[in-house]
Design a protein that fits this description.
CATH architecture: 2-Layer Sandwich
Number of domains: 1
Radius of gyration: 15 Å
Strand content: 5-15%
Structural class: alpha+beta
Helix content: 25-40%
Number of strands: 7
Largest sheet: 5 strands, mixed
Oligomer: single chain
Order of helices and strands: EHEEHEHEHEE
Shape: globular
CATH topology: Muramoyl-pentapeptide Carboxypeptidase, domain 2
Distance between the termini: 33 Å
Number of helices: 4
Strand order of the largest sheet: 2-4-5-7-6
Length: 187
């Protein structure tokens, strides 16, 4: 049976920038969903993230994480706000964020500025798709750069969100609910 232990991701332990937007009002709902900002991943996803951090470092960039593990109750808040399976997983399917195997992120340049990805995180529009035609070449390059780092580290992408990466085969794992006892609390 796989290890379902969630590992905390921090700037000091993983050399990443963390901006958990669901602990703020800067997300698609316009209000905080988490009361505390703890970034967590299942151990295999943590190992892949560490590989991604090293690959990003080799090309002079750094990862900024927007979201990782998400309790099922938070997933329900998002589904209630935007019940569109193109962008938000229905609880009946379960989100790979709630399995601890998905991470939402972007790349920062050597000065700590986010690379232009054409849309904001959480935009939930057709322009958010990985290979949306008509975006400027620099945006396409930046998205492909992120895609290359994450794929080389062992993650796969979903077509509708340039920021979302997950471990292959995640749907076979159970949803983890640590909202009552874990460090990630909901509003």
């Amino acid at each position: 049976m796989p290890d379902h232990r969630l590992i905390e991701i921090t700037p000091s332990t993983h050399d990443v920038d963390i901006d958990l937007v669901y602990a703020t009002g800067r997300n698609l709902t316009g209000k905080p969903i988490y009361t505390t900002a703890h970034c967590l991943l299942l151990e295999p996803a943590d190992a892949a993230l560490r590989r991604a951090v090293e690959l990003a470092r080799q090309i002079g960039t750094k990862l900024r994480i927007f979201d990782a593990y998400r309790p099922p109750q938070a997933q329900q808040v998002l589904w209630d706000f935007l019940p569109d399976p193109t962008y938000v997983a229905d609880l009946s399917r379960g989100s790979n964020h709630s399995r601890g195997t998905a991470v939402d992120l972007t790349l920062l340049d050597e000065h700590g500025h986010a690379l232009d990805m054409g849309t904001d995180f959480d935009a939930m529009t057709i322009e958010s798709g990985h290979f949306h035609p008509g975006l400027p070449q620099q945006v396409q390059r930046n998205r492909l750069l992120l895609l290359g780092v994450m794929h080389a580290a062992g993650f796969v992408h979903i077509s509708s969100e340039w920021w979302h990466y997950e471990l292959p085969g995640s749907r076979a794992l159970p949803v983890i609910d640590n909202s009552a006892s874990g460090p990630l609390r909901l509003m």
